[in-house]
Hints:
binds L-phospholactate, alpha/beta, 9 strands, 8 helices, binds guanosine-5'-triphosphate, Spore Coat Polysaccharide Biosynthesis Protein SpsA, Chain A, 7-stranded mixed β-sheet
Amino acid sequence: MATFVSKMRIPVVIPYKPINPKTRLSCILTDEERQNFAYMMLRDVVDAVKDAGCFPLILATAPVELDDVPVQILEEGLNETINGFCEGNDDPLAIVMADLALADRSSIISLLTSGGDLAIAPGRGGGTNAIYVRSAKTFKAQYYGMSYEKHVKYGNDNSLMIKIIDSFRLYCDIDEQDDLIEVFIHNQGHSRDWLVGHGFEIAMKKSRIGVKRPGFSLSD
Ligand SMILES: Nc1nc2c(ncn2[C@@H]2O[C@H](COP(=O)(O)OP(=O)(O)OP(=O)(O)O)[C@@H](O)[C@H]2O)c(=O)[nH]1
Ligand SMILES: C[C@H](OP(=O)(O)O)C(=O)O
């Protein structure tokens, strides 16, 4: 299957905001740590995209380096960046968020091989975590808020065949402290290593498990 995807040479764009990222993790990470952890998640997403036989391209708001991965700097907002990139581009394209720390080869392949004109992997709380479009120029990004509903409506209004990707690994974006436990349990890459290296541990919280960081205070 990876060979098949590779033959399709589908570019996978990864929007990435390296400066002041993941503000919803401010309660448990310092400013510098948020930047470093966001970068670790980006590395895991890039690895998953490469494992799937695809070509990652980082669309970043500021300079970033990651091995041989091409980076385009576009300082506009997320929707403007994606739409500018899609304009006039007849080819297939996927857009995968940089905070999908659980993404892996098979979840990326499932996104790219659904058979739809527009494949949408919903995220927690109404977001859109990953998208495939058969023809990039037919897509208008509508991220933020209930973006999942907006993208489905867009597809319906434009008579695109929509496939909803039922993928736990693409569904879990890492936005808040409660999401970090998923990294502990299901990520085996840079993101989990980074959390462990920075003192995070699994903790029993009332009836559920979560993470804790013993001894950490934001004044550290
Ligand atoms: N290129 C680009 N990427 C963005 C922009 N805003 C967010 N992103 C990326 O889009 C993805 C989803 O965004 P969010 O989950 O809101 O991430 P975030 O803005 O770092 O986190 P919060 O501050 O907690 O909202 C992440 O991969 C971000 O790096 C933007 O303005 N431009
Ligand atoms: C970009 C945004 O991400 P979230 O804030 O839902 O993580 C969305 O999916 O529309």
